């Protein structure tokens, strides 16, 4: 690496570097990291590793410590995301340097490390010991009979975010492989999914979802008491006849399963905690992608 380049880690409160990373991420992926920070949701579970020159971030890999709740187990993983190199600085091995630095720091400190790769770099990650893995998604045909009680509740302002946060802090997990990462969930709630949040007043339940004609795409259920997936699905009314789960449901006996094969989302894994993930018939929740 050139002498004028510097590796800087974990600098969320450095305004200049933070805004530089946000500018690069916005230019590359269309995501606004600075807005996330200003809303107070960039927490300790997002750790950038950046190459900096003349005060500007030119390449980055971010470390996301992730906790996943299972029936009788909690899995502690590291997700790598926001993998970027400014176009002007590509071809200099900066991503390789960053990957080596991250793995040196975290390889032995977690149950496993994973990432989702763009199709253009599928040959890059095996060089570091990552292996391709598989995910499986579930769908279900339903026969709802009631009227819709789930109402769209856009996350427009601080009061909306705080109401969701309050429920989230007392969350009862519904899926079989659920993310516990408040900062990342609130990133989705206040940006990408801000117009995809529904509220069911009867049991104070928030639902991240899309409706496409008769299909309900169910991403996450946030409730402070136990609610069944069937009860949530019924709350979307009798116009729904099919459900696509954006996470792994608890009860899959009436579901159809398919291997996920989508553009730019190839899963790579490393470590004992993920060695058999492709045989677990699970998926990482859509809203856990960093």
UniProtKB/TrEMBL annotation:
Tagged with keyword Transferase: yes
Gene Ontology molecular function, alphabetical: acyltransferase activity, transferring groups other than amino-acyl groups
CDD domains linked to this entry: NAT_SF (cd04301)
InterPro entries: Acyl_CoA_acyltransferase, GNAT_dom
Top-rank taxon: Bacteria
The keyword Glycosyltransferase is annotated on this UniProt entry: no
Keywords per UniProt: Transferase
Residue span(s) of domain N-acetyltransferase: 8-158
Protein name (record): GNAT family N-acetyltransferase
Organism: Candidatus Galacturonatibacter soehngenii
């Amino acid at each position: 690496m050139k002498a004028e380049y510097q590796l800087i880690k974990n600098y969320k409160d450095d305004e200049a570097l933070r805004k530089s990373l946000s500018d690069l991420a916005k230019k590359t992926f269309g995501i606004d990291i600075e807005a996330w920070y200003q809303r107070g949701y960039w927490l300790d579970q997002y750790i950038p590793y950046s190459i900096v020159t003349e005060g500007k971030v030119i390449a980055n890999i971010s470390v996301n410590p992730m906790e996943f709740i299972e029936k009788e187990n909690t899995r502690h993983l590291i997700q790598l995301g926001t993998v970027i190199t400014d176009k002007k600085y590509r071809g200099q091995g900066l991503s390789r340097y960053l990957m080596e630095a991250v793995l040196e720091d975290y390889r032995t400190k977690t149950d496993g490390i994973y990432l989702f790769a763009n199709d253009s770099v599928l040959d890059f990650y095996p060089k570091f010991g990552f292996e391709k893995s598989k995910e499986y998604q579930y769908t279900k045909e339903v026969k709802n009979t009631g009227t819709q009680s789930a109402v769209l509740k856009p996350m427009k302002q601080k009061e909306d975010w705080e109401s969701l946060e309050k429920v989230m802090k007392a969350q009862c997990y519904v899926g079989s492989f659920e993310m516990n990462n408040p900062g990342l969930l609130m990133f989705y709630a206040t940006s990408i999914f801000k117009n995809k949040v529904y509220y069911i007043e009867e049991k104070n339940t928030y639902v991240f979802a899309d409706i496409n004609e008769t299909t309900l795409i169910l991403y996450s259920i946030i409730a402070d008491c136990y609610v069944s997936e069937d009860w949530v699905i019924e709350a979307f009314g009798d116009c729904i006849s099919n459900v696509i789960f954006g996470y792994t449901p608890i009860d899959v006996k009436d579901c159809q399963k398919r291997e996920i094969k989508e553009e730019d989302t190839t899963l790579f894994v490393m470590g004992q905690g993920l060695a058999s993930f492709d045989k677990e018939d699970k998926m990482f929740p859509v809203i856990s992608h960093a």
